[in-house]
Description:
With about 240 residues, this protein is mainly alpha-helical. The chain contains eleven helices and two strands, in the order ββααααααααααα.
Amino acid sequence: MLGDNGVHVQASAKSTKTTHQRPEPLVFNWFKKPKETPEEPPFGTAETALEGLIAVVSDGVIEDVWDAMDQVPDELLPQVETLIRQDRLGEYPRHCAILWHAYTLSNRGEHVAEFLKPSLEDSVYWALTFEINNVLIGGALGALDGLSDDERERLALAVFERLGASNARKYWLLLKVRTDAMLKTVAQSFDRLPEDRAKMVGAFRQFRAEDLPLLKKYHQPGKPGFELFEIAISQAEARSNASS
Length: 244
């Protein structure tokens, strides 16, 4: 589950243009991993799992629905694609279907399907509007792995701006995008920080040595909000020292 204590991620050291982070399973463990002894899916078969998806009317049941769908992904991917293309789903089922399809392909190391890309921003935005649903946040972040670096950055920036000043969960997008443009946008957002900063701190504990140049570029010591950058710099320096 995604916790406010932080989530370890792997960052590439390509350049300051983009650093894309994939989750380390020991901590970011809400992703469904194969079990040594598979449990009975909550909804049983592919047919009943699909029925569960179509019937979603509350975010509280999404974890069980996705658990069931994850048991039979090969059967469900084409069926879910058909439902999305035909626009035959209500609001909750539609966003759940889009995110599930995207993160399922992403977890396989595949690209997000082209037909999904125009809709993915709205679904990621929708997921991050829920205050306490870490499963939805995990699904939204997992879906970003299947985008190109430029697509990922554009989507993250757009969603970050759309979520507004009062949303603390938007800072978890830093787990996936820590580019120059993203760090600049985050620094500018400190002029109007959400009240519940505790929900933000974990995201700033994920920075690594390769992130230090950008962190120091946009850090403004003593200015309100930038203690979060100090946390990020401290964590990045500690990881740098540990690896040297």
